Each structure stands twice: as structure tokens, then as C-alpha cells.
Recover the amino acids of this structure.
């Protein structure tokens, strides 16, 4: 697949220029089509002498023990607010989680999380983009 775009040369005439994709980002979703998408991305990147970057974004419920296990494996972990959670923060977060659970059991009160608004979504997506770009830069070294 070659994409072309039109531009005007110095004399005002329209000329077409072929664009070969160099780097191809493939978002995997766990479907049977993923293999075909990766194969197509490899073909496109090979023609443009580029790279294929495949990501699999998994949305999971808030689970700090899962975040701790992911950090132990070297993964990038983002909070719902888009903040990077590192080894230095996970211990305190786990302790606060356990304290909140204990207080719920003792008092019988429910804990409610703040609503996830447009600003929160935007902040999270920006942080996700930054994390993906950082991973991409590391993998291209």
C-alpha cells in the first residue's frame, strides 16, 4: 500500500509524491485478525525500511497488587490520573489500600472513587502516549 499526496511545485503545477510508511504502529486486540495486521505492518515497514511497533493495551480494574506485579516484571504502570506509578510509590499505595479496606470493614461504609471526567481522560491519554513513545525510543536503540 503506497499513499500519495499532491503538492505544488515551484511553478504551481500539481505533482504527486509517493509516501512509503517508515514506522508502523499496530494496536493488537487479541482477535484472530491480529496476525494478519502484523504481517501487513511488516510488509509496509520493510518497503519503507522502517520498524513495526506493536502494542497491546489492556484495561483492567484498579488493582494495586496487579500493578505491583507488573512493576516487578519491568512494565510501565499508569494510574487512572495518568501518573506513572513506580517502585517508590507502590508500597504506600498498597498500604493505603489495605487501610481503606480495614476501615470499610470496621465502619461498614462504602468507599466511592471520584468520577472519571474529560480532563482525567485527556491527562491519562497524554501520559499513555508519552509512555508509548518512551518505550518506542528504548526499543529503537
Amino acid at each position: 500500500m503506497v499513499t500519495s499526496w499532491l503538492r505544488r511545485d515551484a511553478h504551481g503545477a500539481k505533482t504527486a509524491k509517493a509516501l512509503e510508511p517508515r514506522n508502523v504502529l499496530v494496536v493488537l486486540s487479541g482477535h484472530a485478525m491480529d496476525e494478519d495486521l502484523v504481517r501487513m505492518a511488516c510488509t509496509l515497514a520493510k518497503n519503507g525500511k522502517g520498524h513495526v511497533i506493536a502494542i497491546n493495551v489492556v484495561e483492567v480494574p484498579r488493582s494495586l497488587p496487579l500493578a505491583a506485579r507488573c512493576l516487578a516484571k519491568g512494565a510501565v504502570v499508569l494510574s487512572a490520573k495518568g501518573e506513572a506509578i513506580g517502585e517508590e510509590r507502590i508500597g504506600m499505595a498498597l498500604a493505603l489500600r489495605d487501610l481503606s479496606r480495614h476501615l470499610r470493614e470496621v465502619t461498614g461504609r462504602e468507599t466511592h472513587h471520584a468520577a472519571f471526567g474529560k480532563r482525567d481522560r485527556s491527562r491519562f491519554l497524554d501520559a499513555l502516549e508519552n509512555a508509548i513513545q518512551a518505550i518506542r525510543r528504548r526499543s529503537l536503540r
The CA atoms of residues 131 and 137 lie 10 Å apart. Residues 1-6 have pLDDT under 50 and may be disordered. The longest strand covers residues 3-8.
